[in-house]
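Please review the protein record below. Let me know how this chain folds according to its tokens.
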Amino acid sequence: MPELPEVECVKKSLKKHIEGEVISSLSVRNPHLFWTVNEKKLEKMVGSAVCEVTRRAKYILIRTDKGFLSIHLGMTGKVLRQDSGYVPGTHDHLIFYFNEFVIVYNDVRRFGYIEWLDDRAELSARFSHLGPEPCTPEFNVEYLSSILKKKK
């Protein structure tokens, strides 16, 4: 499973390539990942502009002007930028088309998943179980102390 530093690297690379770009179309070649891809919900992102690429824990979050795309890489997932003439491979499950390039979600073992979240409330609910990010002010001695008090 990619660790947090690897997910951060993928996020930074995506950020460089897709922020400000418009998603012209998408292709779900295989919806059977860890969670089945909801193609109908995912279609909402077509025609949307990518506003921001962030990370929450090991999830890559792509905020568009229509909602949020959450990507978890699972054990073998990869997000690859390819030229627009790219011919999909066997384990390329989703392809996001932009004007001059494509972004490919490739996952040999299919333990990753991709999910569309309509708004910030749905996003908050989806990640409410996660603690604070390690490099934020919320992750401090008081937080750690309160967590450790609950352990034997």
